[in-house]
Amino acid sequence: NYDVPLEESLETINFLLEHETKLIVLLGSLSDSQASTRWVAERLRERLKQPVQFWSDSLVGQDVWLKIQANHPQGLLVLENLNAYRGEQENSRDFGENLAKLGDVYVNEAFSLSQHSWASLVQTPQMLPRAVGLNFFKEIKMLTIQKPEPVVVISGGVNLGSSLKFILKSLEEKREVLVGGKIADMILRVK
Questions:
Q1: Furthest-apart CA atoms within the chain: distance in Å
Q2: Pick from 172, 151, 91: which is nearest to 125 by CA?
Q3: Measured between alpha carbons, how far is 163 from 179 in angstroms, rounded to an integer?
Q4: CA angle, 66 as apex, 73 and 55 as ends, to 5°?
Q5: Is 120 exposed, middle or buried (0-12, 13-18, 19+ CB in 10 A)?
């Protein structure tokens, strides 16, 4: 359910709007490269009660940022699913640079995706002043709070590689682990 991260990012979006940010460009990567992020623009329109534009044209090419700035000089703009572009998944410097040209500051609110080596998460932030969003900061803070033992680790999702490493490390630390999603399916098949 992508509604949860969207809802959690509203605090940062509202903060930027209250501080008179001229243009907020929202980047998003859905796991299905064929899926559209058009629904994000629609949901934001409903929640924020203001116009939100959607960019479905190509994000590849030298003059993309000029076209976007000419057509959307201010407000909120949601870009099409970045995972539809090979440059995003291949962590292309050129693709990251194209995205960086769209803004003056990079704010990362995608804590749950930050382990990926995608151009929008690796290349783009290297080219702009950067910050983490308010919810991202809260998630980091929650991870650093000293928690009493015992700790139960909950893991799920579709990224088997990084999740499996996390699960094995947790088991090495003698923690209880609850597993769901694709990882649980894989474990049950092997068992």
A1: 57
A2: 91
A3: 10
A4: 65
A5: buried
What integer pLDDT is reported at residue 130 of this predicted model? 95
Is the distance from CB of 125 to CB of 117 less than 8 angstroms?
no
Strand partners, 76: 24, 52
Specify the pTM: 0.76
Q: How many angstroms separate the CA atoms of 186 and 182, rounded?
A: 6
Measuring CA to CA, which residue among 36, 95, 35, 89 is closest to residue 65?
A: 95
Q: Where are the beta strands (DSSP E) in the chain?
A: 23-26, 52-55, 75-79, 106-108, 130-132, 152-155, 176-179
- Distance of alpha carbon 38 from alpha carbon 79, whole angstroms: 8
For 39, 70, 71, 144, 163, the CA distances from 74, given in Å and listed in that order, are: 20, 10, 9, 37, 39
- Joined tokens for residue 35: 């899926």
Q: What is the pLDDT along the chain (191 residues), one digit of tens a residue?
A: 667 888 889 999 999 999 989 999 999 988 888 999 999 999 999 999 999 999 998 888 778 888 888 888 889 999 999 999 999 999 999 999 999 999 999 999 988 888 889 999 999 999 999 999 999 999 888 877 766 677 787 887 767 777 778 888 888 887 888 888 877 887 788 87
* Token pair in block for residue 90: 């291949």
Task: Count Cα atoms within 13 angstroms, Cβ side, for 181.
Answer: 10
